[in-house]
Write a structure and sequence with these properties.
Elements lengths: L12 H8 L12 E6 L25 E2 L2 E4 L5 E9 L5 E11 L4 E6 L25 E2 L2 E4 L5 E9 L5 E11 L4 E6 L25 E2 L2 E4 L5 E9 L5 E11 L4 E6 L25 E2 L2 E4 L5 E9 L5 E11 L4 E6 L25 E2 L2 E4 L5 E9 L5 E11 L4 E6 L25 E2 L2 E4 L5 E9 L5 E11 L1
Antiparallel strand pairs: 1-30, 2-4, 3-4, 4-5, 5-6, 7-9, 8-9, 9-10, 10-11, 12-14, 13-14, 14-15, 15-16, 17-19, 18-19, 19-20, 20-21, 22-24, 23-24, 24-25, 25-26, 27-29, 28-29, 29-30
């Protein structure tokens, strides 16, 4: 099953032709507008790096999938790594750190290299240094803390020795000082997890190496991590369903919930009813959010359903740290369920996104969750790239289909760069990056999907969305 952990790097050829087709479903009339802000309207673009630390209108990251992003101070958008194209047009894993300033409309190459496949420069654990930098990787987990520091964990990439494998290193980047710090984990690949005692923090605890883990951060700055594809306590590789929390104040990991071995199916219990035995199945490349009450929410991904069958999921879960219990909220307990879209902009108890992996996510200022695209099951039960945009309100526990097509494979309709239009839309894609800005607008960058000519490949287009 190791090939499943490559986070979409091996394209599913059986569906490629279908996914590249121009979508023939009419897009419903809406007042919502997408704006193509930056990057190309065609696939496989090289990066234009310019001078490190200097913004320029011509700068732009290369096309990529599996990067991570952070919301920075003053509405700035941060982007790191992924699998894609460097300055020379070569394609593989990247370790470049970028910042986009929406006010200025320009990208700045901040850290890392402008070429592929660099090893990590770890330095001394716990000490920042200008020479420190994580190795090239894709499928990492990411957080931004209340102080504005950027955090990065694991992924599939390069160790200190330049060996390619699964990572469990935890890094912090200080945007003011411009330095990386190696905080936790090892500088090698494919490490087993050290779980310790459930619920007890310890300096020796550390999650196993993995990619595609789900991440969220709480109001106190603690980092939450769930699952992924990687290594359990015995060093066996598979889908994980372990829930962890890292406390930067004590620099310690705590194993909170789930198994310390791989490939567990989900224990769903009764929908909307918490129980001590409930737990999501192992999965990777799903989504995670944290609500205003401190509950951790998870959605979908590729993983194991209630009877241990592997596939694409659309189950939504909530974990309440106060009672240490999971609740299955919505979606199905079996794989490959199509989306139920309902009426656009109309929340409903029966509306739910289809099963998928590699969607992009954000949390808005009102505590609602957002979801865009992914690779999964559309309304016609077809497995394709998606460009649908959804929101979820944790207060009323209802999904709303907001924009995009109910069927997969939609090409991009770019319009004029910088001009919002109801006819504009990003093409269907997975493994994109999403942010929410200071004005509450979602932003989406890159991924693997369909360009303006319906060709499938890696993208570097940056979009903003206005409701």
């Amino acid at each position: 099953m190791k090939s499943a952990a490559k986070l979409g790097l091996l394209v599913l050829l059986a569906f490629a032709a279908a996914a590249c087709e121009r979508n023939t479903e009419p897009t419903p009339t809406s007042t919502h507008k997408w704006t193509w802000v930056s990057g190309g309207s065609t696939i496989d673009q090289s990066g234009v790096y310019g001078t490190k630390g200097a913004a320029a209108a011509t700068n732009v990251p290369g096309s990529r999938e599996g990067a991570v992003g952070w919301n920075g101070a003053s509405g700035r958008l941060w982007l790191f790594g992924g699998y894609g194209f460097d300055a020379s047009g070569l394609r593989d894993r990247l370790n470049d750190l970028w910042m986009f300033d929406p006010a200025a409309g320009s990208w700045t190459w901040v850290s890392g290299e402008n070429a592929i496949d660099h090893a990590g420069a770890y330095g001394t654990k716990g000490l920042p240094a200008p020479a420190n930098v994580p190795g090239a990787r894709n499928g990492s987990a990411a957080w931004v803390d209340p102080a504005g520091d950027l955090w990065l964990f694991g992924g599939l990439g390069y160790s200190a020795d330049g060996v390619l494998g699964h990572l469990n290193d935890l890094w912090k980047f200080d945007p003011v000082a411009g330095d990386w710090t190696w905080v936790s984990g090892t500088d090698a690949v494919d490490g087993a997890g050290t779980y310790g005692t459930l619920g007890s923090p310890s300096p020796s605890n550390v999650p196993g190496s993995r990619l595609g883990a789900l991440s969220a951060i709480d109001g106190t700055g603690r980092l939450w991590l769930f699952g992924g594809f990687g290594f359990d306590s015995a060093g066996a590789q598979g889908w994980l369903n372990d829930l962890w929390v890292f406390d930067p104040a004590t620099v310690q990991w705590t194993w909170i919930s789930g198994g310390n071995t791989n490939d567990h199916g989900g224990t769903y219990g009764t929908e909307d009813t918490p129980a001590a035995d409930n737990v999501p199945g192992g999965r990777y490349t799903g989504l995670a959010w944290l609500d205003a009450s401190g509950n951790v929410w998870l959605f979908g991904g590729e993983g194991l359903d209630h009877d241990g069958t592997r596939g694409y999921l659309n189950d939504l879960w909530k974990y309440d740290p106060a009672v240490a219990q999971w609740t299955w909220i919505s979606g199905s307990d079996v794989i490959s369920k199509p989306g139920t879209y309902g009426a656009q902009d109309t929340p409903s108890a029966t509306t739910v996104p289809g099963a998928r992996f590699g969607a992009a996510a954000w949390t808005d200022a009102d505590g609602g969750f957002g979801l865009f695209g992914g690779y999964g099951i559309d309304s016609s039960s077809t497995l394709r790239w998606l460009n649908d945009l959804w929101t979820f309100d944790p207060a009323d526990k209802q999904w709303t289909w907001v924009a995009g097509s109910v069927t997969g494979g939609a090409s991009g309709s770019y319009g004029t760069k910088g001009t919002a239009d109801t006819a504009n839309r990003p093409g269907a894609r997975y493994s994109a990056v999403a942010w929410i800005d200071a004005q509450g607008k979602p932003w989406v960058f890159g991924g693997y999907g369909a360009d303006s000519a319906s060709r499938g490949g890696w993208l570097n287009d940056l979009w903003s969305f206005t409701k």
